[in-house]
Amino acid sequence: MIDPITTIVLITLGGVLVGLGVHFIPVGGAPAAMAQATGVGTGTVQLAAGAGLTGLISAGFMYNELATSTGLTNSNMILVLASGAVGAMIMITVTMFIGQLIYVYGVGVPPVSAKVKKDPITGDVQDIYVSKGTEGHGIPTVSFVSGTIGGLLGGLGGSLIYIQLMNIGGDHTNSGIVALAGIFATGVFYVNSVIASYNIGGTIEGFHDPKFKRVPKAIVSCLIASLLCAIIAVPIMGGVA
Amino acid sequence: MSTAAGGPASGGISPNNVLILGVVGGLAGIYLTTLNLSMNTTIFSFMGGIGAIFAAVWGADAVRRVCSYGLGTGVPSIGMLALGMGIVAAMFGLSLPESDLIALPAAANYLGPIISFITASIMGLIIGIMANKILKMNIPIMEKSMLEIAGAGCLVMIGLSVAIVGDFRFEEGIVPGVITTGYIALVFIGGAMAMLHPFNACLGPDEKQYRTLTVGVEKTALMMVLVGVASLTEIDAVSSALTIVIGLIIFVVYFKKFLEATHHDAYLITGTGLLPTEEELE
Fold first, then answer.
1. CA atoms in the 13 A half-sphere facing the CB of B156
2. Bridge partner list, A37
3. Tens-digit pLDDT profile for residues A21-49
4. Which phi and psi (to 5°) does residue B275 adopt?
5. Per residue in B85-97, pLDDT tens?
6. A241 in a domain, yes or no?
7. What pLDDT is attached to residue B10?
8. Residues A139 and A118: beta-carbon distance below 8 Å
9. Share above pLDDT 90 across residues of chain A, in percent, rounded to a whole number
10. What pLDDT digit, counting tens, does each position of A117-132 carry?
C-alpha cells in the first residue's frame, strides 16, 4: 500500500520543479523569432512542453523496462527520474543548438545577451555586440547552460509526477493506467508551465535575467496548483486499479 | 506577444448570454448521448460533438475577453492551460461516481459531467485568483475568465470524448475507448486548438466577436470530423459517419459565414493576380 500523503507531496514537488524549470529556459517569443530578443523564438509553453513531454516519454520507457509487479525500488526510481531528465535536456539542447545555427549562419547575428554586460560563465563582453533597437539575439553561452538546467528540472518534475501516478495505478502492463498516468502528467505539466510563463510575462534569458528574481511567486502559485491537481489525481488513479 | 494589449473587448453578444449558451448547450449535448444507453444504440454520439461546439464557442469568447488585455505570453498558452485543468477535472468527475471513495446511489452515475464541470470551475477560479493576487497580472476579469475557460475546457474535452465512444461512463466508455486507445491526446490538443485558435487568428484592432466565434464553431466542427474518424474503431460505422457528415456540414456553413464576415469587415477586397514571372519583369 502506497502512502497517499507521500504521493501527493511528491506530485506537488514535481509540479513545482516544472514551474521552476520553465524559468531557466531562454524564451524569446515572437521578438526572438525575428532575432530581436535573446532566446529561442517561440513561447514558454511550447518550449517547456516540448522538452517536458520528451522527458515523459523517456521516463515512461525506462519505467516499463524496470517496473515489476511490486512497483519500483528506490534505486530504480532514480534511474527513471534520470532518464526523464536526460530526455528533456537532450530535447531542449537540440532545439537551442539548431536555433543557434539558424541565428548565426542564417540570420547572421552574433549570440549576445542584452541583460548583462559580461557573460557570467565565459566572461565575454556582451553589450557592444547588441544590434541597435534589439534586446540581444541568439543564444549566448549563459542562456544555453541555463536552458539545459531548465530541461533537467522540467524533465525531473514531469517524470516524478508520472512515477507517482504509475505507483498508485499499480499495474504497468495495463495500458489504460499507463495512458491515464501519461495524460494526467501532461495536464499537470501544462498547468504549471503556463502559470510559470504568466509569471515571466513574455521573454526571459535564463538565470542571469533580472526577471528570474520573480521565481518565488511562481513557486508559491505552482505549489497551490499542483497540490490541487495531486489531491484530485490520487483518487482517480487509485480508483482505476 | 501582447499584440492585442489594450482594454476590455466589447460588442456583440453579452458575456453572460454566451456563458448560458455554453453551459446549457454543452451539458445538454453531453447528456443527450445517454439516449444511446436507453435505446441501446450509438447513433446519438454526434450530440457530444454538438455539445463541444457550444462549449468551445463559450471558451473562445472567454479567451477573447481575457486575451484582449494582453497576457504577454501569447494566446495559445491559455488554451493549453484550459485543457490542462479541464482534463484533470474531467477525469476526476467522471471517475468519482464509479470509485469506492464515496458511497453514491446508482442514479449518481449520471452526475459525472456535472461533477467534472464544477471541479474545473473551482480549479479555474483558484488559478485565476492566484494569477491576480500572487503573480500580480492585474487583469480585472481574470478570476471570472479563468473559471469560464476551465469550465469550457472541461466540457469540450468530455463532449469530444463522448462523441468518440458514445458513453460518458468512466470504466465502460471513456477508459477503454478514449484513454487506452490514445485518442485522448487528439482530444487534448484539438480541444485546446478549438478554444485558442479563434482569437489567435482574428486578434487585432478590428477584431469582432461574431467573426471570432464563427472561427470557433468552424474549428470545433473540424474537430468533430476528426473524432468521427477516430470513433470508427469504437462505435458502428453509421454512427461515426453521422458524426463526420454533421461535422462537415457545420464546418462548410460556418467557414462560408466566416469568409462573408471577413469580406464584410474588410475595407477593400481586390485580386492582385499571380506574382510576375522572370520574363515579364524584364
1. 39
2. A135
3. 989 999 888 888 888 888 888 887 788 77
4. -65, 140
5. 888 898 888 888 7
6. no
7. 62
8. no
9. 32
10. 888 888 888 888 888 8
- DSSP code for A121: T
Number of A/B CB contacts below 8 angstroms equals: 134
Average pLDDT, chain B: 86
Please tell me the distance from the alpha carbon of residue A79 to that of residue A95, in angstroms, as a whole number.
Answer: 24
Read out DSSP for chain B?
A: --TT-SS---SSS-HHHHHHHHHHHHHHHHHHTTHHHHHT-SGGGHHHHHHHHHHHHHHHHHHHHHHTT--SS-SHHHHHHHHHHHHHHHHHHHHGGGSSSS---GGGGGGHHHHHHHHHHHHHHHHHHHHHHTS----TTHHHHHHHHHHHHHHHHHHHHHHHHS---IIIIIIIIIITTTHHHHHHHHHHHHHHHHHHHH-STT--HHHHHHHHHHHHHHHHHHHHHHHTTTS-HHHHHHHHHHHHHHHHHHHHHHHHHHHHHSS------SPPPHHHH-
Give the closest of A43, A224, A233 to B77, CB-based: A43
Which residues are paired to B70 by β-bridges? none
Q: Could you please report the per-residue DSSP string of B59-123?
A: HHHHHHHHHTT--SS-SHHHHHHHHHHHHHHHHHHHHGGGSSSS---GGGGGGHHHHHHHHHHHH
Confidence of residue B222 (pLDDT cuts 50, 70, 90): very high
- Residue A78 or B108, more confident: A78
Q: Are A63 and A164 in contact (CB under 8 A)?
A: no
pTM score of the predicted model: 0.88
DSSP bridge partners of A71:
A68
Interior CA angle at B55 toward B27 and A188, to 5°? 100
Tell me which residue range forms the domain holding A18.
Answer: 4-234
What is the C-alpha to C-alpha distance for residues B255 and B258, in angstroms, rounded to an integer?
5
CA gap A230, A38 in Å, rounded: 35
H or E stretch covering A137: strand A136-137
Number of domain units in chain A: 1
Which residues on chain B are in Cβ contact (under 8 Å) with A180?
Answer: 91, 175, 179
Nearest CA in chain B to A176: B180
- Across the interface, of B1, B101, B130, the residue whose CB is closest to A235 is B101
Cα separations in angstroms, A20 against A68, A102, A147, A225, B18: 32, 28, 12, 13, 36
Please report whether residue A89 resides in a domain.
yes
d(CA B214, CA B249): 14
Average pLDDT rounded to a whole number, residues A88-114: 92
* The pLDDT value given to residue B103: 64
List CB contacts (< 8 A) between A49 and chain B: 80
Among B2, B71, B80, the residue to mutate for chain A (most A Cβ within 10 A): B80
The C-alpha cell that represents A145 in the structure block? 547552460
A239 assigned to some structural domain: no
Residue A240 counted as domain residue: no
A2 pLDDT higher than 80: no
